[in-house]
Amino acid sequence: MKSGGRVSSLAALLDEAVQGLWRARRMTTVSVFQIAVSVFLVGVFLLTAENLKGVVETVKDETAVTIFLRAGATEDEKSGIERFSRDSHLVAAVRRVSPDEARARFSASWQSLAKATATLPANPFPETIELDLVPEVVGSGTLPEFLKLLAAREAVEEVQFDVEWIRRLRGAVALVQIWGGAIGALLAFGAVFTIANVVRLTILLHRDEIDILRLVGAPEFLIRGPFLIGGLVQGLLGGLFALALLYAAFHAVLRHVAVTHNVLVGVFVVRFLPPGQALLLVAGGLLAGCAGGAIAARRTSLEG
Hints:
The protein is α+β, with helices and mostly antiparallel strands. It has helices at about 1-25, 25-60, 75-85, 100-110, 115-120, 140-150, 165-205, 205-215, 220-260, 265, 275-304; strands spanning about 65-70, 90-95, 130-135, 155-160. The chain folds into two domains: about 10-60 and about 165-304, no CATH class; about 65-160, Alpha-Beta Plaits (2-Layer Sandwich). The longest helix is centred in the middle third of the chain and has 43 residues, at about 165-205.
């Protein structure tokens, strides 16, 4: 009997909360929208950081120098570069990568862009020579001079070594996460007070009923409960709406990449948020809703 009574009480609280939100539906819509915007913007920053981290993870273990060869480089020139690299004692291994192999690697690393690269009229990847450096020479003073000598060769278009770039990219990831958290916190703060005002309006609409409940000795949780639940419902709706909007925007960008063959954008937009971070966004909306409902319920208690 007790468990049945608790279930019926919870059902009554939920029904009262939903009815209160419906009566103040315009303000409810505003608060849900504000929560959704706050959570969505935080999600954009998290999604950007997640994809930047994906780029870092792809190349973080690279201690390789990539030599991009000019079109028309002769076999003697290529062999000369390989011989010079081996004789430097800075290189552990040398391998030549054909344009077709480079395209296959790219498609394997960035699967969401594989179809886009396959539709290009010509293979955009040049032939390269990859040099695996001896680990202890990375960061040494002899390496920059070696790279300059490679870049000066006639058959070389460009020499790429990514350690400094990876370091800067990691800094960008940290900066994006900090700014995302700061902006999200600021917007969530406003959303909390919007929810509090919506719940407050519901309280005013039920002022007489609340007074009667207190006079007859109703438990405080029955009085405050609908307001707390109302805040939670608004937060949940806002969080779910933001997550759905973020998912739709992500796939819209992927479709844009596939249609326009914008490989540069596609490199940085290849995966959605992991489930843990997606749930964290919804939880953030719930937290904002709970805080707004609690503020309004506390005011009710103090005024009572």
